[in-house]
Amino acid sequence: GAVVSQHPSRVICKSGTSVKIECRSLDFQATTMFWYRQFPKKSLMLMATSNEGSKATYEQGVEKDKFLINHASLTLSTLTVTSAHPEDSSFYICSAGPPSTDTQYFGPGTRLTVL
Amino acid sequence: GIQVEQSPPDLILQEGANSTLRCNFSDSVNNLQWFHQNPWGQLINLFYIPSGTKQNGRLSATTVATERYSLLYISSSQTTDSGVYFCAVLNTGTASKLTFGTGTRLQVTL
Is there a contact between B41 and A91 if contact means CB atoms under 8 Å apart? Predict the structure, then answer.
């Protein structure tokens, strides 16, 4: 099956700093990738759709200036949490799917802790 | 938007038991996937099943799209089956955006 990687797997940072999370499709190209957020014991909530070569599409209630998304190539999307605060602490997961399929494959996730 | 509800929310089984997990959705869908989220958070694809029945080892799934539900069957459960099971649907016309269900937390004990 298709493989999606994320880096880093875990990050701890101080309040006010910015953190960049990378999502890569390893064996296929993806014009679209998706970023999700998951709070403890909750389901995944879609944050935004990352579009290669164009602006990301954000879901209602997600601050685009807080969560910057860049999809600069067909295999890489990045999510930058800017000026992070403790309430941004969460598990962030990306997904992508091979062309011409509806099936989504998920990265292993990034656990962000903001002190 | 589409609503996706799963039941039961929590399930405790003894090793070897069978179980059925249910996913109800409120609108027509183009795609339905079942995932297992392991204790480390990784989502593992189980089935892509917009309709019909599929089987993979001890797991099988059935989706009845016209009645807006899907079932995941786990037979002869093992401790490694523990974790959270999610269904996720692709609503018609939403360009590959998956909506996740509420999840079923499964614990398999010895």
Answer: yes
Query: For residue B49, what are the CA distances in angstroms to A79, B29, B52, B54, B83?
Result: 30, 11, 7, 7, 21
What kind and span of H or E run contains B44? Answer: strand B43-48
How far A43 CA lies from chain B's nearest CA (Å)?
A: 6
Compute the average pLDDT of residues A61-71.
Answer: 95
What band does B93 get if pLDDT is binned at 50, 70 and 90? low
On whether any CB of chain B is under 8 Å from the CB of A43, the answer is yes
Taking the C-alpha atoms of residue B75 and residue B54, their distance in angstroms, rounded to an integer, is: 14
Instruction: Kindly tell me if the per-residue pLDDT of A33 is higher than 90.
Output: yes
CA B28 to mean position of chain CA atoms: 17
| Residue A55, amino acid | K
Mean pLDDT, to the nearest integer, of A90-111? 92
User: Nearest-CA distance from A48 to chain B in Å?
Assistant: 9
Mutate to test the interface with B, among A33, A46, A102 (most CBs of B within 10 A): A102
Q: Reply yes or no on whether the pLDDT at A114 is more than 90.
A: yes
The mean pLDDT of chain A is 94
Would an 8 Å CB–CB cutoff place B101 in contact with chain A?
yes
